[in-house]
Design a protein that fits this description.
The protein has about 280 residues and is mainly alpha-helical. It contains 13 helices and no strands.
Length: about 280
């Protein structure tokens, strides 16, 4: 692909304009092919600028070709701009997106400021170190922060990411790896601890027992309404219960409120100070 790109003939300005008109107005696929083929050397050139990110040149060129085709589809020849000027942005953007997606298993920032930091940090760091004197990290981060308009903390975080490779969570701990432990074993879990789970289970069972015991103070109609409205998985509506009992929904609400108040009073009497959230 590279060799073929370098052998493709250049296009004169007028020829390029005529081909763009044919593609834009007539949908001439051959005209589009000639434009993109003539500019593949531009794709190869831009790919070379990103060769230090550890990705294959062939993949970068392929992604750049996608950007080139996008540029050809959007190009407006009536603006009197050379196609190479317009296409450069699309080619570079396509390659940068590919690098950000594949450079690390950890996704980096996708804002314009974060992209600028990712692609310019090494260059600026090398430029600052040209004098041969090693600058303190704080001084270097501040200079790069001012140059790119990002926070110093973002510069420090990106520098740490670019300075070290990704590490698998299944990497054995220890030099010999004989301990059997992996990095995964030392991650902090957000799940409740076994003690908390047991404690919550016991408390839940205790509250359930207290509640069922307190239900005995309700009469048959109150108990039916509370069970249907509060204890069933799919709580019944006031309208439905009113239809079942032959009363208005407002009367159902009144009975329900009275029943709940009776439950609270019974729970406070039997278990003072520990009834919050039961009813």
């Amino acid at each position: 692909m590279v060799r073929a790109a370098m052998k493709a003939p250049y296009l004169e300005r007028q020829e390029e304009h005529d081909l763009a008109i044919r593609w834009k107005e007539l949908g001439d696929q051959n005209a589009m092919h000639r434009i993109t083929t003539a500019h593949m050397r531009l794709v190869v050139s831009i790919a070379g600028r990103f060769r230090n990110f550890g990705l294959s040149m062939s993949d970068l060129i392929q992604e750049g070709h996608v950007g080139l085709l996008e540029a050809a589809a959007r190009f407006e020849p009536e603006r009197e701009v050379r196609f190479s000027t317009y296409a450069t942005w699309w080619i570079r953007a396509s390659m940068q997106d590919y690098i950000l997606r594949n450079w690390s298993i950890v996704r980096g920032g996708t804002s314009s400021a974060q992209k600028a930091l990712f692609f310019n940090l090494r260059r600026l760091r090398a430029k600052l170190a040209q004098g041969g004197e090693k600058l303190p990290s704080t001084t270097m981060y501040k200079a790069i922060s001012n140059a790119l308009g990002v926070a110093e903390s973002d510069v420090a975080l990106m520098d740490s990411r670019l300075s070290g490779p990704d590490a698998s969570l299944n990497t054995p701990i220890g030099a010999d790896g004989e301990s059997g432990a992996e990095r995964m074993d030392f991650l902090v879990s957000d799940a409740p601890s076994p003690d908390e789970i047991v404690s919550e289970t016991i408390d839940s069972e205790r509250r359930t027992t207290w509640l069922h015991s307190a239900l005995r103070v309700l009469n048959e109609r109150e108990l039916h309404i509370v069970r249907e409205r509060r204890l069933a998985d799919d709580g019944a509506t006031l309208e439905r219960l009113g239809g079942e009992l032959g009363i208005s929904k407002e009367r159902v609400r009144q009975i329900e409120n009275r029943a709940l108040e009776k439950l609270r009073s019974e729970l406070i009497r039997a278990h003072p100070g520990v009834t919050s959230g039961l009813v």
